[in-house]
Amino acid sequence: MAIDFQRTAPRPAGARVGRKRSIWLRLHLDPWLLSILLLLVSFGLVVLYSASGMSESTTVAQAIRMVLAFAGAIVIAQLTPSTLRRLTPLAYGVGLLMLIAVEIMGDIGMGAQRWLEIGPLRFQPSELMKIAMPMMLAAYLHRRPLPPSWRDLVVCAVIIALPVLLIARQPDLGTSMLVTCAAVFVILLAGLSWRFILALAVMAGGAAPLLWFNMHDYQRQRVLTFLNPESDPLGAGWNIIQSETAIGSGGLEGKGWGLGTQSQLEFLPERHTDFIVAVLGEEFGLIGMATILVLYLLLISRGLVMANNAQDTYGRLLAGSIVLTFFIYVFVNIGMVTGILPVVGVPLPLVSYGGTSSVTLMAGFGILMSIHTHRRLLKH
Amino acid sequence: MRKRRPTDKDHLRESRVFRNRSLLAAALILLMAGGLVGRLFYLQVVKHDVFTTRSDNNRMRVEPLPPRRGLIYDRNGKLLAENRPTYNLTIVRERVDDLDETLERLVQILGLPEDEVATFKERSRQRQRPYQPALLMSDLTQDQIARLAVNRYLLSGVEVEAQLVRYYPDPIVMSHVLGYVGRINADELADLDPGNYAGTHFIGKTGVEYTYEGQLHGKAGLRKVETNARGRVLRELDRQPPVPGKDVTLTIDSRLQHMAYNLLDGRRGAIVAIQPKTGDILAMVSAPGFDINKFVTGISYDDYQGLQQDPDLPLYNRAARGQYPPGSTVKPFEALASLQNGVVKPNDIIYDPGYFKLPNDDRRYHNWLRWGHGRVDLERALEVSNNTYFYTMAYRLGIDRLSSFMHEFGFGEVTSLDVQGASAGLMPSREWKREKYNQAWFPGETLSAGIGQGYFMATPLQLAAATATLANHGHWVRPHLAEDIGEEAVKPPFADTKPDVKVDQDRWWQDVFKGMEAVISGPEGTARKAGVGLQYDMAAKTGTAQVFSLGQNQKYDADELEERLRDHALFIGFAPVEDPQIAIAMIVENAGGGISELGRELTDAWVLHDGKLDDTLPTTINEEVESLDGD
Description:
Strand content of chain B: 15-25%
CATH topology of the largest domain in chain B: Beta-lactamase
Helix content of chain A: over 70%
Strand content of chain A: under 5%
Oligomer: heterodimer
Distance between the termini of chain A: 9 Å
Shape of chain A: globular
């Protein structure tokens, strides 16, 4: 810790500079991150207005959610990383218990069950796990010497497996894979040896057929459809054919805001949720797509910088995992809509209509800001 | 190795590892983002045109606007073929809440058997795109439409659509004249202009419907519309209205047609009546007829089998395709051939001992009257239908001259303008026999041909055309069924009309006509019974054709066989002789004889305008047509 302190403290003017930037520091906010987020969310709302068929109520509802999500992020940013770390086992434990509750409820009600209803509130425990999982691993590895030993890895595997299996059983393959991703990123960033990574990759390759046989029919159908959308152009292949058509017909400059025929005439399914990027591609063209990708990459760059500046293992690993997982969201969603990945229910982060995922994502950025802005509190 | 304690953390190393790993991650992220950009570039720039087309195809639909098929009238303006709305049941799956339940309910409402649910389910899948209506059932009854309307609130996604379908008010008597339309099949589709037939479901298959398909069909229009994904038309982008098909007025007089059909009285046969001056086919009957309405939307297998296996061959157009030995009806033409070729003069007497013998041949070719008619000149030869006289003529002419003169009257050729499927019959000749059998022509065969037997075959239409030409003193007008197409009259001269039959002396026509008049009015005339009380001059000739073999598929039945072995009876005639208004040819299969009276009745009705014609029509053929606006 002393070393950390020396690395960040040696500038004599540090205190003075700190005082200068103290508005942001005292508010525990990061102006760069916030501005990029604001730009992204605004662009997202513009697209959503068109994608919802010029529905003001939808757009306003989403805007309100975003304001609340920002507020949530700002609140979380006020908590110190050590507080977060102390709360971690609680969050993970509660998340796990709720997943078990969902499992039991799912046995009672038929079919897929992802929601937990407490009074008027509907809550998706798997969403909480997206944050709680990397927190738990980071908290565990925080206390261990790195790179992780075999014993640590076994413990990590248990921490990962319990919730992931429960989520996969709901069944929600998309979320379980995202949660796994978040966990794997923590371990990779912790310095997992390359030999081990290679071995894992080989094992994953070997397990793929196993996964196939344990999939539900509709999940297999999605994979098959991905491999050949034309096999069922009216059914499962319809979505992907229409989204490719929307994006492709957008061309370089797009058809113009609100003028996308694929989107506005409802050929594009789920146009304001999972497939919203196809609306963007159709109406704003390659230029619009490049713009949003640049915004995402700026956000990720800033996130990685903040993660590297984190002063302890917990902060570093957690921040890194949050940022990388965020990119996976972007990649999987755009990849699926452009037809290079199978269709899994992953929304475009901060743009797709819907509250839960936005709140989770913004909470992640809140944690990022907390880690970044509480550095000096670690001095003593 | 040193055992590490939990607190034994190397922060510098951890931080360095993290930095390296996150740099690596950043590189990977850039790579993957580059992959996405590459994919987007491929979709939006490289394949932009493909997807633009696909997107336009999605939203823009060109809907064909099928033209209304032209109507068909008879010469008096009576409607023979019209278009009636029929109602089809369609379903849009996307608008149905519960498909199984809806289909079960539908089957119940329509009063169909339970197992139709499976059929309906299968049919509901047959379509090209989402939100496209699939056809469940066609030809709904009024009762079914009413029941569907009452239960409409239970049946979201189910629609009743109207479509115009051909309807023939007089389907049986007019069957062989009109032919019928039917659903376009794959072979026909290959030959059609796909643009013009895009919205058309029916095409003329036979008869007038086939011959005048091009005029009756009209020209398809189209409209380009923008639709949403549910197939709802949002706006019309472009419209070219269809040009309706032309109405066709026929030369047929449906009163005469009905009278002719009724005269046959259920017997197998054919009657063709032609107006000599104009070539108008006034009646063209082939009996028995069949219900052409059954063919329009698709005849059932059982019905079709029934028609095909009917020993009376109702589907067979005897008038235009039936090839019969013309028998003695060729004698007037042969008489003219003999006069023109100088082998006989009208008053030359031939002695008939009851038979004819070729030189150097003992075989006797008998007259139908075993003891002979004695002294016979041309007029009497026709009156009594003397065979010996015409054996002599045929022998003197030889097959070459006989055949070529008969060709001038259209035997062995198709002379009609627009009768679908008309057959050429067969006028045998030396060359024909050499080609067909690789055999020499025998003189005995000339004699057979001379009395319309042997290889000689003619259709009733050909006989009527030849009779009309005879009545016209050799002037040819191609027989035709169409009088007007749209506003345009179908008028002679027609292309490819045969040259008129020329004879050296004009009075020879009168000589032949005198003989033909004697057939019906003379004391020995073969049709003298039909001539009692005749109020105008009529020329006629009777004939019989021997039936020598049974068809292969005919069942052996003693009574039936006897009936079917009887000779076919033929009759030709025209009236009035000075100013011919009608020429007729008729054949009644296995009648034995005695059909001249039928010919007389037809000419009476046509020439005397005695009102008999108007009584022949059934009164209830025009049913009320439902309005399309009902739905």
